[in-house]
Amino acid sequence: MKMSGAKAIVEALKREKAETIFGYPGGVIMPFYDALIGEEGVRHVLTRHEQGAVHAAEGYARASGKVGVCVSTSGPGATNLVTGIADAFMDSIPIVALSGQVVTSLIGNDAFQEADMFGITMPITKHNFKVVNAKDLVPSLKMAFTLAQLGRPGPVHVDLPKDIQTAEVEFDYPDKIVIPTYQPKIEPHPIQVKRAAELLGDAERPVIMAGGGVISSNASRELTKLAEMLMSPVVLTLMGKGAMDERHPLCLGMAGMHGRMSANYVLNNCDAMLAVGCRFDDRITGDLKHFAPEAKIIHIDIDSAEIGKNVGVELPIVADARKALTAIIDALAKVKKRKDSSEWQKRMKELMEACECDYGCNSTPIHPARVIWELNKLMPKNGIITTEVGQNQMWAMHFFKAHTPRHYISSGGLGTMGFGLPAAIGAKAACPDKPVLNVAGDGSLLMVCQEFTTSVEHDLPVTALVMNNNWLGMVKQWQKLFMKGRYSGTKLGKMPDFVKLIDAFGGKGERVERPSEIAEAIKHGLKSGVAYLIDVLIDPEADVLPMVPPGGRVDQMIPSDRCGKISRLVKR
Q1: DSSP sequence for 63-80
Q2: Residue 355 pLDDT
Q3: How far does CA 323 lie from the centroid of its chain?
Q4: What pLDDT sits at residue 302?
Q5: Where in the chain is the domain with CATH 3.40.50.970?
Q6: Residue 358 pLDDT exceeds 90
Q7: What's the pLDDT at 111?
Q8: CA–CA separation, 226 and 322 (whole Å)
Q9: For every residue of 377-434, which 3-state class applies, written as one string?
Q10: Is the pLDDT of residue 339 over 70?
Q11: How many percent of the chain have pLDDT more than 90?
Q12: For 257-282, how does the pLDDT look when each residue is reduced to its tens digit (9 = 90+)?
């Protein structure tokens, strides 16, 4: 079947069930956009900036588990995708980024709006393609979607010269392809599985640390089952939030720099640690010399490059997380010798009780923890939370209790301000029947506020809950704690009236100045049916505490004034 290259791209999207794509047109991508006219199988969402398109594709992928797709023109349109591509790369999110390119005869001539996206994206993609021969177009598209999902997920970029889009191609799209040079190891080695079961079975103080790989491999059920077999506490990374119901009595929540003191305590006092689908980044480990000093570490990851990269391990298992956990569960059932861990379990119960604070405080200005306390009560179980980056993100991470996978979406490795609103729009496109709320900071939201128009225009209603303190709050906090309070470049100063701003974009909003107003505002937002903004005036002096100082030890956190009980307990 012969057709134009542009039509072949559209047909490939349909074959890959990419029902919704996000993009922004321009000169050299026009043939593709022309092929979209009258096409019912692919919905195009016009964002107001290319960065909005790529973050929306990320939100779509993170919420659905499918590949997200974004589209741009060449030059500045394509380079505007770079931040989001890097974000997806750091967090192992499957997206395919399509960008136009000047005609092949002009490549390398510094033509108008030419940029070497092949070279630019090489370090921030799983793979990238520059299609310079029309016969390679269809195979490249199939390989792009395959690679984005195979093994450790990640972004793939496809560079599409204009003449390749207008050329006639043969459309022969395979259902599946085998890539001989990339065959990730999926099944765990049985000897390693047996050894892992023995180590965990013999442990007196076991702990499981779950990362984003648990969610990517749909292994949450197996994670919970293993934890219950071992009666082991589970701590989460930021990307692993939602991998286990945080209301479960064995889940201690987030560990690391802005995690819970109880979670960091068990990491540093365990004798065996099973780390699943995480990469031991610096925000989790702190000072590596003092991280988990007594632990025999078992590390499960589908990417062999992650094992031993940051932390030495006793036992490496290169495999899919769900398959590895299932095998360990089966092997553990055969392990007869089990040490009594009742003292460890008693300790966990004490830690959890000491680390649960009532944040129903009525102080004015509003304490941000009160906002999340209300959100915990009102967010439906099927609701999706996205976050911006900064203090707002860490307050949500620390205090919000996620119930299920893919319902808490945040930028982890790259820490991208401006991520949350377009990601919320993408999540809403993926899950139109679920309420979606973005926990935002005032500074971060202003980077992408134009995407409210996208929400309104395409009937993708999301709610933005803005923590408004008129500062770049996280940088201010670091200046306060580590720069002797010398504030430079962090006071936002003159800001727009956010309620008028959302009104100008065609949405609705309200301002909240007292704690008693928070709950009703959240209810209004979740039921509004349109883009909604809740402008919450919070205490500008509120910090995200407890906190591990940069490069510090995770067992030496700076406590908050509410951490007295847990601080005393972890020092015993």
Answers
A1: HHSS-EEEEE-STHHHHT
A2: 79
A3: 23
A4: 98
A5: 2-170, 368-537
A6: no
A7: 96
A8: 11
A9: HHCCCCCEEEECCCHHHHHHHHHCCCCCCCCEECCCCCCCCCCHHHHHHHHHHHCCCC
A10: no
A11: 91
A12: 999 999 999 999 999 999 999 999 99
Which residue do the tokens 């506020």 mark?
449
CA angle 332, 336, 340 (to 5 degrees): 90
CA atoms within 13 A on the CB side of 150: 19
What is the model's pLDDT at position 373?
Answer: 94
Helix axis angle for 321-332 and 190-202, nearest 10°, is 60
- Confidence band, pLDDT 50/70/90 cuts, at residue 337: low
Comma-separated ranges of CATH 3.40.50.1220 domains in the chain: 190-354
Q: Element (H or E) spanning 199, and its range? A: helix 190-202
Q: What distance in Å separates the CA atoms of residue 382 and residue 362, rounded to the nearest whole number?
A: 28
Q: How are the residues of the chain apportioned to helix, strand and coil, as percentages rounded to the nearest 5?
A: 40, 20, 40
Q: Which of 441, 537, 430, 532 is nearest to 20 (CA)?
A: 430
Residue 194's pLDDT is 97
Query: DSSP for 310-354?
Result: SS--SEEEES-HHHHHHHHHHHHTT-------HHHHHHHHHHHHH
Q: SS3 sequence, 501-552?
A: HHHHCCCEEEEECCHHHHHHHHHHHHHCCCCEEEEEEECCCCCCCCECCCCC
User: 190-354 sits in which CATH class?
Assistant: alpha beta
Kindly tell me if the per-residue pLDDT of 117 is higher than 70: yes
Give first-to-last CA distance, the chain, whole Å.
Answer: 73
DSSP 368: H
Distance CA 520, CA 195 (A): 53
Span 368-537: which CATH code? 3.40.50.970
Q: Under a CB-based contact definition with an 8 Å cutoff, are residues 425 and 448 in contact?
A: no
DSSP letter for 27, please: G
pLDDT classification of 163: cutoffs 50, 70, 90: very high
Distance CA 341, CA 316 (A): 24
Give the Å distances, CA to CA, from 198 to 194, 325, 329: 6, 14, 11
pLDDT tens-digit readout, 485-540? 999 999 999 999 999 999 999 999 999 999 999 999 999 999 999 999 999 999 99
Residues catalogued as catalytic: 50, 112-113, 162, 474
Fold assignment, 2-170 = Rossmann fold (3.40.50)
CB 192 within 8 A of CB 324: no
Mean confidence (pLDDT) of the chain: 95
Closest Cα to residue 502, out of 465, 469, 554? 465
